[in-house]
C-alpha cells in the first residue's frame, strides 16, 4: 500500500471515529480527538467556531446523522436538536 493510500485510510478511519463519537455524545473522546487549536469553518457563514464553542454546540445544540462515504471524505448532516 502506498503512503498516500495509508494516509487516506487513516483520515477515513479518524473521520468515522469522530462522527461515531459525536453521535454518542462522548465528550471525553471528542476532547481527545480534537486539537487544541481546532477551528470550524463553514461555507454557510464567515464566522469561525473555536474548539470549546464547537464542543458546546455539538454536544448540546446539534444532532448529527451520517451520510454515505463519498469518495475520500465522510459527509454528514447537522440539525438543531429540538
Which blocks of ≥5 consecutive residues have pLDDT under 50?
A: 68-74, 77-82
For the termini, the CA-CA separation is: 45 Å
Q: What is the general shape? A: globular
Question: Which percent band covers the strand fraction?
Answer: 15-25%
Q: Please, how many helices? A: 3
N-to-C SSE string, H for helix and E for strand: HHEEHEE
| Average pLDDT | 76
Number of domains: 1
Give the spatial strand order of the biggest sheet: 1-2
The overall strand count is 4
Helix content: 40-55%
Q: Give Rg in angstroms.
A: 14 Å
Strand-helix topology:
Layout: H1 3-24, H2 27-33, E1 39-41, E2 48-50, H3 51-60, E3 62-66, E4 76-80
Antiparallel strand pairs: 1-2, 3-4
Summarize the structure.
The chain contains three helices and four strands; from the N terminus they run ααββαββ. With 82 residues, it is of the alpha+beta class. Helix 1 runs antiparallel to helix 2.
Characterize the structure shown.
It is a single chain. This protein is of the alpha+beta class. The chain has one domain. Helices cover 48% and strands 20% of the residues. The protein has three helices and four strands; from the N terminus they run H-H-E-E-H-E-E. The strands form two sheets. Strands 1-2 form a two-stranded antiparallel sheet. Helix 1 runs antiparallel to helix 2 (27-33). The longest helix is centred in the N-terminal third of the chain and has 22 residues, at 3-24.
Which characteristics define this entry?
single chain; 82 residues; alpha+beta; two-stranded antiparallel ribbon; two-stranded antiparallel sheet; disordered C terminus
Amino acid at each position: 500500500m502506498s503512503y498516500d493510500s495509508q494516509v487516506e485510510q487513516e483520515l477515513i478511519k479518524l473521520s468515522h471515529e469522530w462522527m461515531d463519537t459525536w453521535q454518542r455524545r462522548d465528550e471525553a473522546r471528542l476532547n481527545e480527538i480534537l486539537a487544541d487549536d481546532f477551528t470550524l469553518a463553514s461555507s454557510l457563514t464567515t464566522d469561525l467556531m473555536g474548539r470549546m464553542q464547537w464542543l458546546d454546540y455539538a454536544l448540546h445544540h446539534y444532532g448529527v446523522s451520517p451520510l454515505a462515504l463519498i469518495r475520500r471524505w465522510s459527509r454528514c448532516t447537522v440539525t438543531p436538536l429540538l
